[in-house]
Amino acid sequence: MIDFGFDKLALIGAVALIVIGPEKLPKVARTVGHLLGKAQRYVADVKAEVNRSMEVEELQKMRRDVESAARNVEQTVQQELRDTQAALDPGWESLDNAVQSIETPGAYSDTLREPPGAKSPRKNWRAKQAAVPQWYRQRHGVRGHVQSGAARVARFRPPRPSR
């Protein structure tokens, strides 16, 4: 901007004092100060807006780059999946054919299924096994059964004195 030194400001002040007069000079100086402040705030707002728009453009460019990279990764993964499936399909078909040739209706094969009436190797698959051990639940007072409010009150009521 314009470079004002102390000597130039003193010259402008002396000319303003002569032209405007000593009575109106403080009021005019205050008004000029307010106008300069508004101008500086306006310039700062414009600079901030320009910086924001530049940041928005950079973010949009970065988003486009990330989206294109994601699309490339997705395409690569899809292509690899297609290639792997194409390589595995003949093996699955030959395995299906081998299984169908081994299994004949009415025949029994030890390698494919359990004999009728065989017991499951699991202990008791119908009974739900607790995740917390019984000793831990008893020690810490974890309730195992649901009680009504009246039963809970009766359980913790102090005993009556005998008559």
Automatic annotation (TrEMBL):
GO terms for molecular function: protein transmembrane transporter activity. It is a single-pass membrane protein. GO terms for cellular component: TAT protein transport complex. Residues 104-163 are annotated as: Disordered. It comes from the Bacteria. GO terms for biological process: protein transport by the Tat complex. Keywords: Cell inner membrane, Cell membrane, Membrane, Protein transport, Translocation, Transmembrane, Transmembrane helix, Transport. Signal peptide: none annotated. Residues 154-163 have a biased composition (Basic residues). Part of the twin-arginine translocation (Tat) system that transports large folded proteins containing a characteristic twin-arginine motif in their signal peptide across membranes. Together with TatC, TatB is part of a receptor directly interacting with Tat signal peptides. TatB may form an oligomeric binding site that transiently accommodates folded Tat precursor proteins before their translocation. Belongs to the TatB family. This is Sec-independent protein translocase protein TatB. The lineage of its organism: Bacteria, Pseudomonadati, Pseudomonadota, Betaproteobacteria, Burkholderiales.
